[in-house]
Specification:
Strand content: over 45%
CATH class: Mainly Beta
Structural class: mainly beta
Shape: flat
Largest sheet: 12 strands, antiparallel, barrel
Radius of gyration: 22 Å
Number of helices: 2
CATH architecture: Beta Barrel
Distance between the termini: 35 Å
Length: about 300
């Protein structure tokens, strides 16, 4: 019942954003564009001698931008949402994709291709995440656990319509871990809880911190190019270093998307997402815990609607 409700809420959420985007009329110097899509696959087996289980997979995605530009300044705004689940037989639904990301950048002309910039971003996820290999009842992440807010000042270089590079040497980042159990465990770089031995038992004497403040430098490189007719490639690389703690360790967030349009409503998407953050400890198959390079690849085919 919980998963069905989540699917319904997600569908209504994506639909509402689509209607809002379509019905809004913007002044001349504003431009808007984006796409919303739903990908779905299903298989059913009955007395199948080769074995197997029924399966249902779905993923909803929305990418939308509203941008302003005149002769001396610009303001770029983008929202990127994704949520996907896989149901295999009678087992509990497993999450396959989950993202909430908002980005906003204000630029003021320094030269023809260079802007003074102020960049803001927010990242989190919709639903609880689990390590399904170990436990599907204790979440290891959730909405605002973690959540990231960043604000940075710097310069943006825009040589053409395909590429941009923003470097913000003065960037503040706030990491929020709203789930107290995760905060107590020191997840995502926050200070863990303090425990003491009282009467032969370990008792928590101080809660873990729910926030962490970082100050450092952030670089964002974006590339959007047409590969062939109806085939496009989008890539965004984010690098962040914290001046206050281990500045030699650079956080990496690299997102790539290849879109193949079959026609005006049918498309195939291939996404690849690489993350490295030394504040995120991951336990490998050998039981060793520490920072790890995270990688996710998703191939999806479904209905896509272009937003204008």
């Amino acid at each position: 019942m919980k998963n069905t409700l989540l699917i319904l809420i997600s569908f209504l959420f994506f639909s509402s954003l689509t209607l809002l985007a379509q019905d809004t009329t913007l002044p001349e110097k504003w431009k808007k564009s984006g796409a919303v899509g739903i990908n779905f696959s299903q298989s059913h087996l009955s007395n199948w001698s080769a074995g197997g289980e029924d399966a249902i997979n779905w993923q909803g995605i929305l990418n939308y931008g509203i941008n302003y530009a005149d002769d001396v300044k610009k303001w770029d705004n983008n929202i990127s949402l994704a949520l996907g689940y896989s149901h295999l037989g009678e087992s509990k639904a497993m999450k396959t994709d989950d993202k909430i990301e908002l980005n906003s950048l204000f630029g003021y002309n320094a030269t023809e291709k260079l802007y003074y910039s102020l960049e803001f971003s927010f990242k989190t996820q919709f639903a609880d995440g689990f390590d399904y290999k170990k436990d599907s009842s204790t979440p290891i992440s959730g909405f605002m656990a973690p959540g990231y807010f960043t604000l940075g000042a710097g310069m943006q270089y825009v040589p053409n319509k395909y590429f941009s590079l923003n470097f913000a040497p003065a960037t503040a980042r706030i990491t929020i871990v709203s789930d107290q159990a995760m905060a107590d465990a020191g997840k995502y770089g926050v200070e863990p809880a303090v425990f003491d031995s009282i009467g032969g038992q370990f008792v928590k004497v101080k809660d873990g911190e729910n926030t962490k403040i970082s100050f450092g430098a952030k670089l964002i490189a974006k590339l959007t190019v047409p590969i062939a007719e109806n085939v496009s490639f989008d890539s965004k690389l984010e690098l962040f270093t914290d001046y206050l703690k281990n500045p030699q360790n650079i956080d990496v967030d690299w997102q790539n998307l290849i879109t193949l349009k079959v026609n005006s409503w049918l498309s195939t998407n291939i996404t690849a997402h690489l993350i490295y953050d030394d504040d995120i400890a991951i336990t490998d198959k050998d039981g060793k815990t520490g920072p790890r390079t995270q990688f996710k690849e998703v191939l999806s085919i479904g209905i896509s609607y272009k937003l204008k």
